[in-house]
C-alpha cells in the first residue's frame, strides 16, 4: 500500500501535535517512528490508520495504483496499539473466530493454528478478561501481524512483554510481514530493527498555537 500525506496536521484544542507533514509512504517499505513519550507518535499512527481524522491536510491511500476510500480503508489495515482493546467477554477462541469475519488469517490457518502461534494453547477457552497484560499483548500483536492486509501499524509493540515475549514478537514479525507496508512507533530499538527508514515525530512538531 502507498500512502501520500499532503500538509497533514493534527491538533487538540489550540496545540498542534504535528503539522505540515508532507510524506510519501512507499509500498512495501518499513518505517520506524521515534520520539519522546507523549510527543504524538500514537496520534500519528492513529491518523495513518484512519482511526483519527487529520485537522488539516489530506491523506491518500492506494493499492496497486487504485485509490482506497475512507469507508473501506479498515479492510486494508491492521493495527496493534495500547488504546485498542480486545473484547474481554469473549474467550480466546471466540475472539479469533470473530476476527476472521473481518480479516483473513494466512492461507491454510485455522483458529487452532493461530492459538499455537500465540503459544496460548492452555488458554483457548478462557475469557480474555482473565488474561495477563502480556497474554493480551500477544493476542493483539498476532491478530495484527498474522492477518492478511497490505498495511501494518504497530504502536509500542513490546509493551507488557517480557524478554521471551519480545523475542516471540520479533520472530513473528520477520515470519509474517512479507511485502506489507509497515510502521512501528517505539523508542525501543529492537522493536523496529526490521525497519529500513527512521522518522522522528519531532520533525513534524512545531509546538505552535492554532492560528
Query: H/E series, N to C?
Result: EEEHEEEHHHEHEE
Question: How much helix is in the residues?
Answer: 10-25%
Instruction: Specify the CATH homologous superfamily.
Output: P-loop containing nucleotide triphosphate hydrolases
Q: In total, how many beta strands?
A: 9
Strand order of the largest sheet: 6-7-8-3-9
Distance linking N and C termini: 34 Å
CATH class descriptor: Alpha Beta
At the fold tier of CATH, the topology name is Rossmann fold
Biggest sheet record: 5 strands, parallel
Strand content: 25-35%
- Class based on secondary structure composition and strand pairing: alpha/beta
Q: Which runs of at least 5 residues are low in confidence (pLDDT < 50)?
A: none
CATH architecture: 3-Layer(aba) Sandwich
Rounded to the nearest angstrom, the radius of gyration is: 17 Å
Instruction: Based on Cα principal axes, name the global outline.
Output: globular
Instruction: Round the mean pLDDT to the nearest integer and report it.
Output: 92
Tell me the count of domains: 1
DSSP helix count? Answer: 5
Describe the structure.
The chain is an alpha/beta fold and 211 residues long. It has a single domain, classed as P-loop containing nucleotide triphosphate hydrolases (Rossmann fold, 3-Layer(aba) Sandwich), CATH 3.40.50.300. Helices cover 25% and strands 27% of the residues. The chain contains five helices and nine strands; from the N terminus they run βββαβββαααβαββ. A five-stranded parallel beta sheet has the order 6-7-8-3-9, sandwiched between helices. The protein has a four-stranded antiparallel beta sheet with strand order 2-1-4-5, covered by helices on one side. The chain is globular, with a radius of gyration of 17 Å. It starts with a strand and ends in an 11-residue tail after the last strand.
Amino acid at each position: 500500500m502507498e500512502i501520500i500525506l499532503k500538509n497533514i496536521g493534527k491538533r487538540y484544542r489550540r496545540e498542534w501535535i504535528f503539522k505540515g507533514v508532507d510524506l510519501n509512504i512507499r509500498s512495501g517499505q518499513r518505517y520506524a517512528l521515534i520520539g519522546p513519550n507523549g510527543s504524538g507518535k500514537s496520534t500519528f499512527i492513529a491518523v495513518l490508520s484512519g482511526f483519527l481524522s487529520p485537522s488539516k491536510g489530506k491523506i491518500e491511500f492506494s493499492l496497486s495504483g487504485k485509490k482506497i476510500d475512507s469507508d473501506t480503508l479498515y479492510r486494508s489495515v491492521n493495527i496493534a496499539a495500547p488504546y485498542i482493546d480486545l473484547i474481554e467477554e469473549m474467550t480466546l477462541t471466540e475472539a479469533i473466530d470473530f476476527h476472521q469475519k473481518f480479516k483473513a488469517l494466512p492461507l491454510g490457518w485455522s483458529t487452532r493454528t493461530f492459538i499455537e502461534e500465540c503459544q496460548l494453547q492452555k488458554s483457548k477457552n478462557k475469557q480474555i478478561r482473565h488474561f495477563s497484560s502480556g497474554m493480551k499483548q500477544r493476542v493483539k500483536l498476532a491478530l495484527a501481524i498474522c492477518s492478511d492486509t497490505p498495511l501494518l501499524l504497530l504502536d509500542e509493540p513490546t509493551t507488557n512483554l517480557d524478554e521471551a515475549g519480545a523475542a516471540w514478537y520479533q520472530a513473528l514479525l520477520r515470519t509474517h510481514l512479507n511485502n506489507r507496508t509497515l510502521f512501528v512507533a517505539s523508542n525501543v530499538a529492537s522493536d523496529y530493527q526490521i525497519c529500513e527508514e527512521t522518522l522522528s515525530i519531532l520533525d513534524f512538531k512545531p509546538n505552535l498555537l492554532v492560528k
